[in-house]
Structures are given as structure tokens and as C-alpha cells.
Design goal:
57% helix
Length: 86
């Protein structure tokens, strides 16, 4: 299922739903991801001040993938960057 996020606040409830669907408690999930329960709580509340590196770890460990819809006008440039040719 694809979900379009309009703000940081939109991400939190989605991640909470994914975690709960996997029958994972917040404290156990945070421990297995090596992030604090406080951090995971901030993510699930949609805080806009979380660290991207840790957020990416949470997304990855929950099996959530981020997909960017890049404007066609930038596609070639982005492709070169992603291929390491920049």
C-alpha cells in the first residue's frame, strides 16, 4: 500500500499502525532497533525534530520503504547522483 505524506505528523500514525499490526510493543520494538523508547514515541507522534538517521533505521526495521516521486525535469540529474556519477 502506498501512502502519501503531507507532513511529518502524517508519518507517525502510519508507523504506529505498522508496528501494532506486527504485534510489537513500543518498548520491545525500540530495544530491538537500538533506539530509545522516547525516540520511537516521538516518531509515532509525528515529531518534526527527529534525527533522520535513526528515523531511517526505524523505517527499515519495520519494513517501511521510502519512495520519492522526483519531477521529470530532475530525473536525469537524480539518476546520475544515485548511480554515483555526480
Amino acid at each position: 500500500m502506498k501512502v502519501i505524506l503531507k507532513s511529518a505528523k502524517d508519518l507517525g500514525p502510519v508507523l504506529r499502525a505498522v508496528r501494532k499490526a506486527q504485534n510489537m510493543r513500543q518498548d520491545d520494538t525500540a530495544g530491538s532497533m537500538q533506539v530509545s523508547e522516547n525516540f520511537l514515541s516521538k516518531v509515532e507522534r509525528g515529531s518534526d525534530t527527529v534525527q533522520w538517521g535513526l528515523l531511517y533505521r526505524v523505517l527499515t526495521d519495520l519494513g517501511v520503504r521510502i519512495e520519492l516521486d522526483v519531477p521529470d525535469s530532475a530525473a536525469d540529474r537524480v539518476r546520475r547522483i544515485m548511480d554515483g556519477d555526480a
